[in-house]
Design a protein that fits this description.
Largest interface: A-B, 30 and 21 residues
Distance between the termini of chain B: 38 Å
Radius of gyration of chain A: 13 Å
Largest sheet of chain B: 5 strands, mixed
Structural class of chain A: mainly beta
Number of helices of chain B: 0
Oligomer: heterodimer
Shape of chain B: globular
Strand content of chain B: over 45%
Largest sheet of chain A: 7 strands, mixed
Distance between the termini of chain A: 36 Å
Shape of chain A: globular
Order of helices and strands of chain A: EEEEEEEEEEE
Number of strands of chain B: 9
Chain lengths: ~120, ~110
């Protein structure tokens, strides 16, 4: 079955360390997205990518970096510059970034990052 | 993007219809209304979307007022598994912005 795989499900990081969250999709979707969710809050957009080798900052990009070397993969690096990295991180993909056709976004199951 | 307003929480008895309202008074002509839901600690799940006309699928119905300033998501026969946070989103273009949504509790 096609879908989005995020790994790992739980991640612990020491303060001051960079960490990379994996996101892989086999849906042949063009666009991919990273969101952050804090307890009791909605989702906030970190970065998105419409095509390979191109990506754009979302609303809260500071302290994060991404790459899009392959259509299937959109890893997110949480750098030491991110002041409050503990959160639930969600990756999503869609067929087109402008016209959300049919089912719209498909989300992964998320990675819960905790800074210790 | 148009801003949406949803009640923070609602209750519904199992087997009854759940009607979740959403106000989007600043919506523009080409902005779609989307509904997603999120069960605790999972990724959001698409439910339905619409532009002007009412829509229905196997999960729910979406009623959009004629002036498009508000909409209602209807779950016709709510089950305990429908307990989740429901997000109403208005957007055209590349990314969806999720607010705090409505926390729906379906009770036995």
């Amino acid at each position: 079955d096609g879908g989005i795989t995020q790994s790992p499900k739980y991640l612990f990081r020491k303060e001051g360390q960079n960490v990379t969250l994996s996101c892989e999709q086999n849906l042949n979707h063009d666009a991919m997205y990273w969101y952050r969710q804090d307890p009791g809050q909605g989702l906030r957009l970190i970065y998105y990518s419409q095509i390979v080798n191109d990506f754009q900052k979302g609303d809260i990009a500071e302290g994060y970096s991404v790459s899009r070397e392959k259509k299937e993969s959109f890893p997110l690096t949480v750098t030491s510059a991110q002041k409050n990295p503990t959160a639930f991180y969600l990756c999503a993909s869609s067929i087109q970034h402008r016209a959300l056709i049919g089912g719209g976004y498909t989300f992964g199951s998320g990675t819960r990052l905790t800074v210790v | 993007d148009a801003k949406t307003t949803q009640p923070p929480s609602m209750d519904c008895a199992e087997g009854r219809a759940a009607n979740l309202p959403c106000n989007h008074s600043t919506i523009s002509g080409n902005e779609y209304v989307y509904w997603y839901r999120q069960i605790h600690s999972q990724g959001p799940q698409y439910i339905i979307h619409g532009l002007k006309n009412n829509e229905t699928n196997e999960m729910a119905s979406l009623i959009i007022t004629e002036d498009r300033k508000s909409s209602t998501l209807i779950l016709p026969h709510a089950t305990l598994r429908d307990t989740a946070v429901y997000y109403c989103i208005v957007r055209v273009g590349y990314a969806l912005n999720f607010g705090k949504g409505t926390s729906l509790l379906v009770t036995p």
